[in-house]
Amino acid sequence: xxxxxxxxxxxxxxxxxxxxxxxxxxxxxxxxxxxxxxxxxxxxxxxxxxxxxxxxxxxxxxxxxxxxxxxxxxxxxxxxxxxxxxxxxxxxxxxxxxxxxxxxxxxxxxxxxxxxxxxxxxxxxxxxxxxxxxxxxxxxxxxxxxxxxxxxxxxxxxxxxxxxxxxxxxxxxxxxxxxxxxxxxxxxxxxxxxxxxxxxxxxxxxxxxxxxxxxxxxxxxxxxxxxxxxxxxxxxxxxxxxxxxxxxxxx
Length: 251
Prior knowledge:
The protein is mostly helical. The chain has one domain. It has 14 helices and no strands. The protein has helices spanning 2-16, 19-43, 52-57, 60-74, 79-84, 86-91, 97-116, 119-130, 138-164, 169-186, 189-192, 198-207, 209-216, 223-249. The model has no long low-confidence stretch (mean pLDDT 80).
């Protein structure tokens, strides 16, 4: 455990010593701030059944920001170290492969959580100024952030898999973006093709992150979503570990 914590501190320091991290953080804060302002301005025009929480977590700017932040967070995890040759130096230390993989995954997830922490202030300030609840129930607020954690775990694991497969950060970013965007656009199939079969609609609903967020932002926490994101994250990390071990011993 001590070795894992040491590796985790190394990964976290690497984020906050990099200008890319601050660029991503500033971009995301501007985008989410604009998204929150747009949602409040839209709801202030008249009575609506949509809450501030639902408007914030089900808008186009929200999805743009969510999809775009994962590639820059994860693209350097393995690709940069393989390219610079620092991975060989790291592996000469008495650490195990799974500790390296999990520390990089946990470090990326830690930075992802840091990015989202300021968004709590949006709702706190809104409730303080307007004396109005941002959501109809606490479950909707907690469910939305629970979904952010679940989807963050899954998408970061996809980014880890993409990064371990190449030495080029740009290639890793493109690969992870395409895989993550696939789950987003899958949710638009039923929107653009309303006449699809019920079986295909159920399959799309099971994988669609858009529909999942719609459920969680209303306080509907489906255990099937927990199983899907949890098992998918474990699968991606297992594949990452296997490829990492293959590249480590490849002549």
